[in-house]
Design a protein that fits this description.
This protein is α/β, with parallel strands linked by helices. It has two domains: 173 residues, Rossmann fold (3-Layer(aba) Sandwich), CATH 3.40.50.300; 64 residues, no CATH class. The chain has a six-stranded mixed sheet with strand order 7-8-9-3-10-11, with helices on both faces.
């Protein structure tokens, strides 16, 4: 059974059609990378999947729960608030800009949702938080505040926060785009280490070598459509002209 299904998704902003009939599936524990030039609709697709944007038309489904489907007019109609709240526990999202609370220390940033969303005790939530910070190599930074951390460390805290709610699928929206090259490597290393947890991951990224190495499936988008999708080997060896044009700028690292 698929964890996530999006079918025939369309999304426009005014006269700009950003997503043109996009369909994707993500299986249990599957790692999917979405690549493509800027403006191709990658981040908008992720925002639709995580309910930060509403689709104009299309179907959105998590496991057996239908979140959105088309009405008689072909427009997306969303489920009730209770259903949407329940399904939000299925996934986590790691943003480009970390989105940590600046007035909370690292441990509270990671553990607060466990207390307020999952209604766990503070003791239990902090135990979970410390275990995740340890996995991120940041246990010694539990009492620090975000401004005291490097960008790479802040992003690792954000990953720990997303993992704290024990999601079945984790979304990454260009998780290294705000980092310099040295810090990018440490964050990519942490994401690779998450394979051990057997959590499905959907990663929008410009890091081509990383996408090729980590992914069970790669989706190449351009101009709001899926041009190629398949295994990493299939996509990166594709002879599609649009795909080759895009990969040409990365030839030195692939």
């Amino acid at each position: 059974m698929n964890l996530l299904e999006m079918k025939n998704v369309k999304k426009s902003f005014g006269d700009l059609q950003v997503l043109r009939d996009i369909s994707i599936e993500v299986g249990d524990g599957e790692i999917v990378s979405i690549i493509g030039p800027s403006g191709s609709g990658k981040s908008t697709l992720l925002r639709c999947a995580t309910l930060l944007e509403t689709m104009d038309s299309g179907i959105l489904k998590y496991e057996d729960t239908v979140i959105a489907k088309n009405n008689a007019d072909g427009k997306s109609v969303y489920a009730d608030k209770k259903t949407i709240k329940q399904v939000k526990s299925v996934y986590g999202l790691v943003f480009q800009q970390f989105n940590l609370f600046p007035h909370w220390n690292v441990l509270r940033n990671v553990s607060d949702a466990v207390i307020n969303v999952q209604k766990k005790s503070k003791t239990e939530a902090e135990k979970t938080g410390k275990e995740l910070l340890d996995k991120m190599g940041l246990l010694d930074k539990a009492d620090y505040y975000p401004f005291q951390l490097s960008g790479g460390q802040q992003q690792r805290v954000a990953i720990a926060r997303a993992l704290a709610l024990n999601p079945k699928v984790l979304f990454f929206d260009e998780p290294t785009s705000a980092l310099d090259p040295e810090l990018t490597g440490e964050v990519l290393k942490v994401i690779k280490s998450l394979k051990d947890l057997h959590i499905a991951m959907v990663i929008v990224t410009h890091e081509m070598a990383f996408a090729r190495d980590i992914s069970d499936k790669v989706i190449f988008m351009a101009d709001g459509v899926i041009v190629e999708q398949g295994s990493a080997d299939e996509v990166f060896s594709s002879e599609n002209e649009r795909m080759q044009l895009f990969l040409g700028r990365y030839k030195d690292i692939l």
